[in-house]
Design brief:
Blueprint lengths: L1 E4 L3 E4 L24 E2 L2 H4 L2 E15 L3 E3 L6 E5 L8 E10 L5 E8 L6 E5 L3 E4 L1 H5 L6 H10 L14 H6 L1 H8 L15 E5 L2 H18 L4 E3 L7 E6 L6 E5 L3 E5 H5 L10 H4 L4 H16 L48 H12 L4
Parallel strand pairs: 11-12, 11-13, 13-15
Antiparallel strand pairs: 1-2, 1-14, 3-6, 4-7, 4-10, 5-6, 7-8, 8-9, 14-15
Helix pairs in contact: 6-9
InterPro entries: MetalloPept_cat_dom_sf, Pept_M10_metallopeptidase, Peptidase_Metallo
Pfam families: Peptidase_M10
Keywords: Hydrolase, Metal-binding, Protease, Signal, Zinc
Amino acid sequence: MLEHLKGAAFMTCFKNQFLLLIAAFSFGAILTSQATTTVDAKAQSAKVISEKKMPVKAYHARKGYIYSNATLTKIKHNAKNYPRTTFYAQKRVTVKQANGKKAVYYYVNNRSKSVRGYIWHGYLKSISITSATKEKPMSQKSLVKLINEAPDMNPDSQIRSLKKINYTDHESVFDLGYNVMHFSPRSMFKDNQATVYVASDKLTGYAQNAMNKWNDALKTTVFKMGTKANHTLTIQFGNGTKEDWDGLYNGKAIYVDKSHFADPKYPIGYMDEKLASQISIDQYWTGVIAHELGHTLGLDHTGYQEDLMYAQDSGGNVIAKYTWKKPVVKSSTGLDGTEIAKISERDLNRAKLTKILGYW
């Protein structure tokens, strides 16, 4: 879940979705991976019946887990995070699952072999190996160097105008280089557009304003209003006071804390007077929803205070290029982007990048 905590701090807790990337980004410590998820081996372990080499074929993965071992006890990746990555298979394994049924898994890897393992063959869609190999991507080392030389957390036009194959083959490099990830199901954005149902009239105005901010910034209709019967994303009230959040995105819906929303003094009545004088309550709640909409686009937090997607520290990030415990750069006002409901250039360019990566 992606949360907006009280006092404009942010936190995430999408567990077991960190990416493995062996690359040396130049700024600070790198969060390279979360430990491989181990399932209950006694209950879930599969028995390998046969292994067979096969002619190399290219695939796209639609969904499913990628396991590091053929006995299917260690989950290494979630294929839904690599919607445009080309995988190559040259080995098939037949296993007897814990339920007694036989299944065929392919051992796959992307071109750089940074993402590899066993996946059920039914989750793969065959593509032309000619089209998959007609262009060669730049090396991972060269791409990391290019990202390090570009503005931090700000994928400029040079980064966004590379050959398409670089985005498909080095998706995890872009994810870690710019704190982005495929948070939303593919069904949420149809033709790069999400249809939003707002469950309470009290939230409608704030939601529309937040949607407009993204639509205006991206110069296209990314979010449009829908109905209860026709929508791909819901915005509704939730109970975040106990867990200390004002806004939350759980991969399916956006929640706004009902208790704080109903407090006529919140948040400005609890802030420093000088800071409070620069914002309004309406502005704040618009910012909270806009922030959560940013998560639907695949944006994790940054350490730049002026950003809409700012977080006070990196502790809750799903993915982070480096760690921070205070603003990497403070804003000129002392307020963050959510509090003033403003999309920064970094926010905008990262959203443009996630569109290229196919996250929305």
